[in-house]
């Protein structure tokens, strides 16, 4: 026991247990004190008095509104530790954060939930410019849904400064507001050459943000892109990290990405700025369907992409398994440097749609309309692609997609089993052979049978690629592809117990939804409130006169009894919604007849504090006499909004998703789908889906309008366009009938992007126009 | 003896002497064979057969037109050596070069002179992309005046590729053609992390080039500015390295500049691109007069400027002892990144005019006329200036010149003896104290008497500054300034025997000029040819009818006997000059009367192959009836052209220096001075001095027109300007009289640059106009 420490303790601090002897081999044996605290004042005092080797223990329970400034000076052998009494039983809630300042400080076992940081970060490795953390660690913790109330209020959940800090064995998921989940900062000489460790974490689902600044990890920024970082990102699981197109945005030099698993993540590992990164031994696992799962996107100089395994990825262009971008000659600092001196070697691709794309992002065709400093015309040079193995169960037309010529790339000793389909072999650099597939697990299938005469190409410094994907030495019996030999054990990459904490799991037991029958209006809200998420509210036949908005704050379905449409008549005040879509309110409406009083709304998000996403699916429903069918406000976001087999009539406004007006690339839904619907006499904003601000790498917004009929709509539409989708990148208008709509244009398609129309019948409704380039505000 | 090697030798190779035993401590003793060769075929064969430990010896004498490809594979302990029989007695002449390919190859004792490389380099550490040198060395060699014939034919004299190559103990001087003397290339992964050594060399005079691309050392380029270089430049003497504004242009990362001496060099050590350089323990020595001697100019991030000594420097702005530039926000790759995270610590400045300038290169005032991507408005941030000592025998008005605010700079614990003149102390970061000066040598004077209470400021990582200028440990008894203590030995920094070869000296015994009297025209050329450089040709009184151009190819003076002007009448053909100024032809004409036939020229350079500079001074002379007084052709250059107390009359054209028309920033003379002259009836091109192409860091071209009279001139001047000096940066027109010159403008001054006029009398001659910004072609 350390009696000196004891002497200073206040009344409300208990000395307890844990006398630890340091590991064999140390010169001195030290005694760790355990100092239990149960409120913030006691914690602050304990921190103030802490000495190397002290262990401050937070009592189990809820710690609300705690701003923890963990400052101190531990030593390598005797860190100061701040831990939960029981890992996972200490929750940090409300307006709370944790900041480190000093050295050799460790935090363990906390659960951040039900709250948000009042600061710019939840966990920060700096208290102020004079108190920066070094050799500090947060481990075995969870940060879950700790979102600021407003989507535009930017923060980070873990913000690195200093050197040699660590985020390990944590589970982090659910960020919806602006800002990368994790950022490493390099401003200031204190934070370069940082050698931070981001290891063994489980990055759980981060939903689509609907605009930029939704990375899971960002290492630096363009202004520090010259800085040597040496951050290690290893052995992490990235599960459904869908925030934006970049799961990891590496913007500094000498970072390493090793043995991570990217599982169903709608984005890529991108070397956005900075150079000389190592991307080795990672798994990129798709489902063979979703085209948003990415791989590795390369910009800049000197990266080595080795021993990676790509499976079942259907992404193309920016989201290709390997997307090598064109640069801008003499690029501005925040744009695209040319790719040079890159090595892509010993990777394996199984059943990927376009394994390799070069010249990605080329916009030479727009040279006439864009300034010279925007033209990505500089192709990759001094780049080697060697010793890779590709296996396609269905042969591809091209192994290399050349958006611009890959004439600065040397292909050596790559092989592909393309099932006999002919392709460009780049002077023998890509050879067709016949391979077999050995199944190791559901997602790990190894192409086998590489002919013995195909020896690995030995490029400059290739001797530094010492092992294969599984860590097996390449020194003897080397072979091409990510995996040497065929006799390998299942790496169990999706065994979640290998990542994150030792106490938290995001696996949920599936449960069957329960139906709750309602017979009169007054009980609807109560039934919703009492239901579990996923349950069904069933309206018995009849008319329900609802006076007050129904609050939806969980996943819920509301439907009529089979076959008979219940009618819901909403008499609520002007501009109030029948269904108020709150954070996490994911509403499915089926087979109802909804009627308003011409001043109120059918559906609306909150006007503010939409701290989490909502959702909306409407099927087989009649909607009439509303001011707005759907009104979504600024900073509200739904991943999907779907109207299906639904009739909308006699409304002043239709589906309004144009709240994001500050030209920062944000929008209100990722997917708006309108299929087999009828719109009649909707006077304005029939469909209004808007994205402002231009950044070519943010590729979202998806509108499908199909098999629907629009009649007598748009009479009060000021801009004389029926379907408004300004700035939406992916638009498909197909199989619709437009009749007697007094507008000039049914739609104005953005020709330079993925906007298409087909099989529409238009009479007395203006026309569909294609505008090649939009005038948009640049976001950078 | 190595009999295996012997067995392979051809007839014309002699085996001789030199059995060497390797140094004590090696596991095996090895025998070095000496293989003497006396022609290129034998050399090539010897190279082909060479094995580790071989020593190939070049026989003394002249080796003409030899293209040496030195390829082979030595080992660390047994390199393959190619050496002169006697160091300095083997000269490489004519069209020759030396290329290295392989590893552990060394070259010693050669003298490159009287020739030029037919390739892009004289010495190159690469034969082709598959034969790059590693661990190769050139040492104890001289490269002297090895210029291509045309100034625009670019080459390098030592061109580095690969890794771990060395240029040591060489003397290199006299480059006049385009291209840095030394370049380190980083294209390709084979050449990054190169750790080249450029050490112990004597870089002798490199004359002003007259335009850009005249660096003595260039490390990389903007396109490889992200590359880690780690080149060491140490213990070199840079003597009169005046090629351009950058003596050393560092364009990559992690380079080190240690213990070099910059002596009367008209340029700076510039961190032009790239980051994280170390500039430690260097000497920058001026003469207290010349404002072109520079110091250290900082651009980009993370440089450490420590322990340097600055003496008697009068440079300002770009050429300040410390010039910290403004950057361009989000700069294009080839422009100016912002200065961030720079440390300037423990330096000493003695008698420098403006020790520290910040915001150098700011052009915010031109924001209206220049594109945004050209505006240097980003001030230095996160920059620390600490522990420096400044001593001024004459107090300065400002210690820090703020071209733009230094508000991102932290000043800590700097002191200055400013002789009581008040200055901005930056919140105590620069304190006035009273110091003494201890004289160690002519150029090394140490400020002493730092008060004991001024402890060094301890910034982040300052503990890495372990020694002082002289290598003394800072661990105990540390103090501010470059030098700890006062009891130091003279470092003899200008003892030339410490640098360069062990056999060559550039010190010349001064000799008195000899006068050679001439009495008739036919003997003038013969006397010139027979004279030594510096001699004087004296024309006896009388008239000399010269029919053929007089060839001037050395420094020579031609003058009349005192008091009486000899008349030289030139009847040469049209467009031929009386004095043909050849390479190295530095002509002084004094007290003559020169008369042409209205079709020929008084003075002209060669039309081509001006492989070295000329010079011209004309005093007390009458010049009349020429087509051109002086006609200087493209790719000709004179450091100075001076007309003094000379009358020029009845000529079709005057002084024509406008040959450089390809807008690459070149021009024909550095200084054109016209003082106390009379121009009468010169019809066109009275003065025509031109520079095309804009790059703000090339700051040359100097025109002085003073105390002169211009009458009846410019009648045939198409552009209606009397004194043409388009693009010349420094212009001073003062004390002249302009009378009855039928032009619109006497001069059009460039307002944004250092163009001035004063005390001129203008009558019936148009006016002097100031144009703030010229339209010029950008060179980058």
What descriptive keywords fit this protein?
3 helices, 16-stranded parallel beta sheet, Pectate Lyase C-like, Pectin_lyas_fold (chains A, B), homodimer, mainly beta, PbH1 (chains A, B), DUF4957 domain-containing protein (chains A, B), 780 residues, globular
Description:
Chains A, B: This is DUF4957 domain-containing protein. Chains A, B: InterPro entries: PbH1 (IPR006626), Pectin_lyas_fold (IPR012334), Pectin_lyase_fold/virulence (IPR011050), PL-6 (IPR039513). Two copies of one chain form a homodimer. By secondary structure, chain A is mainly β. Among the domains of chain A are: 285-445, no CATH class; 515-771, 3 Solenoid (Pectate Lyase C-like). Chain A contains three helices and 71 strands. Chain A has a 16-stranded parallel β-sheet that branches. A 15-stranded mixed β-sheet of chain A has the order 1-2-3-6-9-14-17-20-23-26-29-32-35-38-41, with helices on one face. A 14-stranded parallel β-sheet of chain A has the order 4-7-10-15-18-21-24-27-30-33-36-39-42-43, with no helix packed on it. In chain A, strand 12 (126-128) and strand 13 form a beta hairpin. The termini of chain A are far apart. Residues 1-32 of chain A have low confidence and may be disordered. The A-B interface holds A 187-190, 192, 222-223, 226-228, 253, 274-276, 300-302, 330-335, 337-338, 340-341, 343, 373, 382, 460-461 and B 187-190, 192, 222-224, 226-228, 253, 274-276, 300-302, 330-335, 337-338, 340-341, 343, 373, 382, 460-461.
């Amino acid at each position: 026991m350390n009696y000196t420490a004891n002497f200073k303790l206040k009344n409300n601090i208990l000395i307890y247990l844990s006398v630890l002897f340091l590991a064999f081999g140390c010169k001195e044996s030290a005694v760790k004190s355990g100092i239990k605290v149960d409120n913030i004042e006691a914690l602050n005092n304990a921190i103030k008095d802490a000495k190397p080797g002290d262990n401050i223990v937070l009592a189990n329970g809820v710690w609300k509104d705690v701003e923890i400034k963990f400052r101190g000076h531990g030593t390598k052998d005797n860190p100061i530790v701040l831990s939960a009494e029981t890992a996972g039983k200490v929750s940090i809630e409300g307006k709370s954060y944790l900041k480190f300042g000093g050295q050799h400080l460790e935090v363990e076992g906390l659960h951040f939930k039900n709250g948000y940081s009042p600061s710019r970060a939840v966990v920060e490795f700096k208290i102020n410019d004079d108190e920066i953390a070094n050799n500090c660690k947060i481990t075995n913790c969870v940060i879950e849904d700790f979102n600021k109330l407003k989507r535009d209020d930017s923060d980070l959940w873990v913000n690195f400064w200093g050197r040699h800090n660590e985020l390990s064995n944590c589970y982090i998921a659910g960020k919806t507001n602006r800002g990368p989940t994790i950022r490493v900062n390099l401003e200031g000489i204190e934070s370069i050459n940082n050698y931070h460790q981001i290891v063994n974490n489980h990055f759980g689902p981060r939903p689509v943000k609907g605009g930029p600044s939704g990375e899971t990890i960002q290492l630096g920024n363009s202004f520090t892109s010259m800085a040597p970082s040496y951050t290690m990102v290893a052995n992490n699981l990235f599960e459904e990290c869908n925030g934006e197109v970049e799961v990891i945005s590496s913007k500094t030099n000498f970072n390493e990405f090793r043995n991570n698993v990217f599982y169903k993540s709608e984005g890529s590992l991108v070397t956005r700025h900075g150079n000389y990164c190592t991307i080795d031994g990672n798994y990129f696992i798709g489902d063979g369907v979703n085209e948003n799962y990415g791989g590795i996107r390369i910009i800049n100089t000197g990266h080595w992409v080795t021993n990676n395994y790509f499976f079942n990825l259907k992404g193309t262009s920016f989201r290709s398994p390997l997307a090598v971008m064109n640069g801008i000659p003499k690029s501005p600092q925040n744009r695209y440097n040319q790719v040079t001196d890159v090595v892509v070697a010993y990777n394996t691709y199984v059943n990927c749609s376009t394994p390799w794309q070069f010249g990605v992002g080329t916009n030479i065709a727009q040279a006439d309309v864009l300034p010279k400093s925007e033209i990505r015309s500089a192709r990759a040079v001094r780049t080697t692609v060697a010793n890779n193995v590709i296996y396609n169960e269905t042969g591809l037309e091209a192994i290399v997609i050349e958006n611009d010529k890959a004439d600065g790339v040397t292909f050596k000793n790559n092989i592909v089993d393309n099932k006999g389909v002919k392709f460009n072999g780049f002077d023998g650099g890509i050879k067709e052979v016949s391979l077999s597939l050995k199944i190791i697990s559901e997602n790990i299938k190894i192409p086998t049978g590489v002919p013995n005469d195909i020896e690995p190409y030995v490029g400059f410094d290739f001797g530094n690629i010492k092992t294969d994907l599984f860590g097996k030495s390449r020194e003897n019996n080397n072979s091409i592809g990510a995996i040497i030999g065929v006799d390998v054990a299942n790496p169990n990459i999706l065994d979640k117990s290998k990542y994150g904490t030792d106490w938290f799991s995001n696996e949920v037991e599936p449960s069957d939804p329960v139906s709750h029958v309602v017979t009169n209006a007054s009980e609807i809200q109560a039934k919703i409130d009492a239901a579990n998420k996923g349950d069904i509210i069933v309206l018995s036949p009849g008319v329900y006169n609802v006076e007050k908005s129904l609050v939806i704050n969980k996943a819920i379905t509301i439907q009529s009894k089979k076959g008979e449409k219940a009618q819901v008549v909403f008499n609520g005040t002007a501009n109030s919604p029948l269904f108020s879509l709150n954070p996490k309110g994911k509403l499915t409406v089926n087979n109802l007849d909804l009627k308003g009083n011409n001043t109120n709304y059918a559906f609306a998000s909150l006007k503010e504090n939409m701290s989490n996403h909502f959702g909306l699916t409407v099927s087989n429903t009649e909607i009439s006499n509303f001011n707005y069918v759907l009104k979504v406000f600024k900073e509200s976001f739904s991943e999907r909004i779907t109207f299906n087999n639904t009739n909308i009539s006699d409304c002043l406004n239709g589906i309004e998703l144009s709240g994001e007006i500050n030209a920062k690339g944000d929008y209100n839904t990722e997917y708006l789908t309108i299929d087999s619907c009828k719109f009649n006499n909707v006077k304005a904003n029939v469909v209004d889906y808007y994205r402002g601000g231009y950044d070519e790498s943010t590729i979202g917004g998806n509108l499908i309008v199909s098999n629907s009929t629009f009649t007598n709509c748009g009479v009060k539409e000021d801009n004389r366009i029926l379907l408004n989708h300004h700035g939406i990148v992916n638009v498909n208008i197909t199989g619709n009938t437009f009749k007697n709509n007094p507008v000039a244009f049914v739609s104005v398609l953005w020709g330079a992007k993925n906007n298409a129309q087909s099989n529409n019948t238009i009479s007395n409704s203006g026309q569909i126009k294609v505008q090649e380039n939009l005038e948009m505000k640049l976001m950078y």
